[in-house]
Write a structure and sequence with these properties.
By secondary structure, the chain is mainly β. The chain has one domain: Jelly Rolls (Sandwich), CATH 2.60.120. The protein has strands spanning 3-12, 22-25, 39-48, 51-63, 71-75, 79-80, 86-92, 104-118, 121-129.
Length: 130
């Protein structure tokens, strides 16, 4: 198994709209055959809030047109925040399913915060498993 870093470990306190990405080779000319990917492994820690009701969710986004647009490919189970620090790991499917005329597929992982937490935090990193 090969591991490629998608996004290095970093801390956040709000939803992300973009992140670093990895470029995968993709089929050209309408052929939707892709190399197998075991998934995006997200390792997180310090998922907590002071009070309120917050939830973090990780998503794999894929672009078939070199970042012109991004589609949600998969999302992980929600992490419901409490005042106690949580840590763990999720493996999200990475399943490209469209042809790309550019010969590349771009993949990124983002974290989205929902609810109404007070002082939410999260630290995580994401790796592509092939």
């Amino acid at each position: 198994m090969a591991i490629t870093e998608i996004v290095g470990k970093h801390s956040i306190t709000a939803s992300e709209t973009s992140n670093p990405f990895v470029v995968l080779p993709g089929p050209v000319s309408g052929i939707a055959t892709y190399a197998p990917y075991q998934g995006a492994r997200v390792t997180y820690q310090n998922a907590q809030q002071a009070s309120g009701s917050g939830v973090w969710t990780f998503s794999v986004l894929i672009s078939y047109n070199r970042g012109g647009s991004w589609q949600t490919n998969s999302s992980g189970p929600p992490i419901t925040l409490t005042s106690t620090e949580q840590l763990g790991e999720q493996v999200l499917p990475v399943s490209p399913n469209q042809p790309t005329d550019s010969g590349q597929i771009w993949v990124q992982v983002i974290a989205t915060l929902s609810g109404s937490p007070v002082t939410p935090t999260l630290a995580y990193r994401a790796d592509l498993l092939t």
